[in-house]
Amino acid sequence: MNKLLVATTAACALALSAGMAGAAPLKACWVYVGPHNDGGYSQQHDIGRQAVAKALGDKVDASTYIENVPETDSERPIRELAQKGCQIIFTTSFGFMESTIKVAKDFPNVKFEHATGFMTAPNVSTYNIRWYEGRYVMGQIAAKVSKKGLAGYIVSFPIPEVIMGIDAFMLGAQSVNPNFKIKIVWVNSWFDPGKEGDAANVLINQGADILVQHTDSPAPMQAAEKAGIHAFGQSSDMSRFGPHAHLASLIDNWGPYYIKEVQAVLDGTWTSHQAWEGFKTGLVEVAPLQNMPDDVKAMAEDTIAKIKSGALHPFQGPIYKQSTGMPSKETEVVGPGQVIDDKTLLGLNWYVNGIDDKMPQ
Amino acid sequence: MRIELIRRPQRSARMAVLSPLIAIALTVVAGFVIFAANGVDPVGALYVYFIEKLTAWWSIQDLIVKMTPLILIGVGLSLSYLSNTWNIGAEGQLAAGAIAGSVLPIYFPDWGGPLVVTLMLLMGILGGMAYGAIPALLKTRFGTNEILTSLMLVYVADLVLDWVARGPWRNPAGYNFPNSRQFSDNQLLPVIAGQHVTVATVIALVVAVAAWFLLGKTLTGFRIRVLGEAPRAGAFAGFSRNRMVLVAFLISGGLAGLAGICEVAGPLGQLRISVSPGYGFTAIIVAFLGRLNPLGVIVASFVLGLSYLGGEGIQSTYHLSDQIARVFQGMLLFFVLACDTMIFYRVRIVSTRRAPPPAAEAVRESA
Amino acid sequence: MSLPELQGLLLTIITAATPLLFAALGELVTERSGVLNLGVEGMMAVGAVIGFIAGHVTGLSVVGVVASVVAGMAMAALFAVVTLVFVANQVASGLALTLFGLGLSGLIGDRYVSIPGLSLERIHIPGLTDIPLVGPLIFGEDPLVYVAVALAIAVSWFLFSTRAGLIVRATGDNHVSAHALGYDVIRVRFLAVIFGGACAGLAGGYLSIVYSTQWIPNMTAGRGWIAIALVVFGTWLPGRVVVGAVLFGAISILQLNAQGYGVSLPPQFLNALPYLTTVVVLVIISRNRTLLRVNTPACLGQAFVPDR
User: Fold this and answer.
1) Which of B167, B276, B272 minimizes the C-alpha distance to A96?
2) Number of helices and strands (H, E) in chain A?
3) Handedness of CA C222, C227, C230, C232 (dihedral sign)
4) Which of A107, A279, A105, A138 is nearest to A210 (CA)?
5) Which of A132, A142, A187 lies closest to A165 in space, CA to CA?
6) Rounded CA gap, A114 and A97, in Å?
């Protein structure tokens, strides 16, 4: 243990010798699964990181991040950050879960926050976004704007977060047009512009005039622009990829959360928690609203306000599971006025009624 | 001006030692240039890249953990390449071994203990062997080029692994997320040093020494080397070329499979949709860097393992793209390959003159 | 399936097949001369990033395309020097090239990730392009598709109807005899490798300028390896390589298309098809000794050092 302490101190000293001040500002570090400038998911985390640096100034050193960390090999980079003196580490991808817990065990004085996961520890929190709130709004917009009543939905993997998004989108669309339909294509990757573009073209060929994506590249938006239809962007503002196609993007806004957490560490009030926030605290935005009639825009803003205030919950009953027949008591999940609870949502693995595709096993 | 190669009458022992050193030196120089060109302090960066990881016990552990699969696979590949059998599919055999070795913990989650772990390792070896036998048999039966078949099969194996870990074998308590359940402690390899160095490292070192012994002191080793360097002589001596292809793939495939299950039952602790960041391909470089010598493979694994970790260090300290590790590895291999020529050939730069005087011609002819 | 749908589907397939075709044709010529260059992925990646940056900086996609070709040639030259002049092992050198190329492209492209780039518009010939189904397919593609088709024809003509092509094939089939006949084996192979690099670079440029109109690390996504497989799948004949490229392009598209129709097969199985098919084809052509002898360059992968 002594040797470890000496070695660690030596390593830290050497690493920090390149010009970091003595009385150290709080060091906050990030681990990204993709490039910090991928124009999507990881970039939004990086924007959040920069927001921390701006908001908390000298009190914080938020300059350190490791990007392109493969999920199979994530323990070491996380450990390296802990060794290099980071006091709070944000691991931003689901696949980092086990590694985060492992490293956290060895560094009880370092705080860890894991995005989109479900394992916690005394020094590990999880944080997540209620993306489904945004998806509901997008569904409403889609149903209003679409002439054919058919949207193409490009997705990565059948995990609960994605299923939640599909279901919420559908529920939102159905609240405007009960006969709205979607076609779902799985590309088995979070980020593969070639494949996403192909999937987009396939869906356009099959008659979709709205594209929705739960993948991270701008390829579907570009395909929509080329084909003259509309699309929703993901993670970051994708309007520049589709000036005429872009309706809205589901924007991850991690800044406010990161600032809150780092401030909590500074104040000594940080505790382990499982955060799942949405419109209310500004963690997710559906913006900028473009290329739609004013009344649709107004409806969208109205829905967002309602969800913010709690007057409307996307998963508010009656909600029926997908079935071949008419919706009935057997397939009802929640009745009128009831809301599906968080726990069920986090483990969601069924489609709502109205979706014709079968869920991949 | 032309570069001419003149074959040396025998291997230059001096160049054999100097060549990797020259290659490393050239890589360091090139690295200096790359760092400077990117606006980063070159000396500091080189330090972070090559030296810093050796200064702390925790990162030395990480280095050892990273070296272990490279040694296992690299040794197998060097045996294979020595016999002129080109197994490029180690990455796929690794995946096959990982899958085969995980059968027990997945289907019998309550079974554990040293016997079970040993069985897991054996099954991993068999899985790698079986998968490696495919390109071997295709070669011996149909004469199919093993480079291409073993390479294609890598993708197939990776896709099977993806399907298995995402589908039927995924953690039932994992909310539909991919990857298997975490293996219980008695289904994992025992840790022997620090927190991460498992018994797999010892196995790797033993395998390397055993391979060195096999190559240098046994008849099989002799066969391997003869069939590789002088196939016709080998044929005359009655060494079966076909048998050697099979043996080469079984050994290298089995070792790759072993590396696969050791990763799963070691650092990963579960079967994931991807269990290797390209060890099977990096090991090819390791084999060449180690000059196809099992002991050299250990040194080469050290160098390449360091380059991976160094890349991460550069990223977190200087915010340069992590791709720099690949650039270094590629450069190093190029330099090694180029410098190695000098072991077998003398390099001469010849200026193309017009009609040389006949006397000089005659002198050159007899040289 | 309606006509516009079929048309759209075929257009998508052709776009997916084009980069594969470029890279495969280049590798075909390289392998015909006896050199196995496994570094296609690396050359493609560098071609993609340089092509994108050049187009972005100058504002002209044509410049981008040309730049991608030059970049591919430069990477190929590196490989050629190491394997032909320094007589290094071709397999290892190819892998080094892949690594180096992928890393270099990531390093260079770091500042240009996810910037929307230029594109090459599909051509439109009034009257011809508007013919249903056939029109857009034959007369409405982006310019590089026509270049790819022309290249396939040109390569075929070159290899089998010209003396220079005969020399290339001779070098690949029996380099000792070719040398004895007075042909500069090293020079022929050098040029063949450079050509392969030019095509691989062009394939990369197509990816970042037409297919995705942006640069993203690892955007080649294994296409280089598929191109290598394609050459074997097509038994080193340009015509068959064209068929193979379309087939391989179709497989990935059709899998997505099937999903849109509600058919769900495990995607991994469909994604494995191109590779499995290649293995099967490899076996078939190896079994037939004549086919093998006639088409596989006998000296593929073997080093050649001219002695006095």
Assistant:
1) B272
2) 11, 14
3) negative
4) A138
5) A132
6) 7
Domain membership of residue A342 (yes or no) is yes
Residues 6+ apart with CB under 8 A from A30: A45, A46, A49, A64, A65, A66, A89, A90, A92
Output DSSP code: residue A311.
S
Taking the CA of residue B198 and the nearest CA in chain A, the distance in Å comes to 16
Interacting residues of B238 by C-beta distance below 8 A, sequence separation 6+: none
Cβ-Cβ contacts under 8 Å, C136 against chain A = none
Q: How many domains does chain A have?
A: 2
pLDDT the model gives residue B318: 78
* Chain A contact set for C211 (CB, 8 A): 194, 197
Domain that holds residue A299: 135-252+285-346
**CA B352 to mean position of chain CA atoms:** 41
- Same domain membership, residue A52 and residue A100: yes
User: How do residues A194-219 score in pLDDT, each as one tens digit?
Assistant: 888 889 988 998 889 999 999 988 88
Does A60 map to a domain? Answer: yes
Q: Nearest by CB to B152, which of C268, C269, C275?
A: C275
**pTM attached to this predicted model:** 0.82
Task: Work out whether the CA dihedral B40, B46, B51, B53 comes out positive or negative.
Answer: positive
Q: What is the DSSP code (8-state) at residue C82?
A: I
What separation in angstroms does the CA of A207 have from each of A148, A241, B290, C38? 8, 22, 57, 41
Q: Residue A4 has what pLDDT?
A: 56
> Is the confidence at residue C293, as pLDDT, over 80?
no
pLDDT value for B161:
93
Q: Which residue ranges form the domains of chain B, and what is each CATH number?
A: 56-320 (1.10.3470)
Question: B41-89, pLDDT tens digit by residue?
Answer: 888 888 888 888 888 887 888 899 999 999 999 999 999 999 889 999 9
Give the containing element (helix H, strand E) for B6.
strand B2-7
Tokens found for residue B199: 């018994």
Strand order across the A210-213 sheet: A181-186, A150-155, A210-213, A230-235, A246-252, A284-287
Residue B56 contacts A where some CB pair is shorter than 8 Å: yes
Spatial separation of the C-alpha atoms in residues C89 and B208, rounded to whole Å:
23
Q: Which of B57, B62, B277 sits opposite A7 (nearest CB)?
A: B57
How far apart (Å, rounded) are the C-alpha atoms in residues B80 and C287?
A: 24
Q: What is the ipTM of this complex?
A: 0.81
What is the C-alpha separation between A303 and A140, in angstroms, rounded?
9
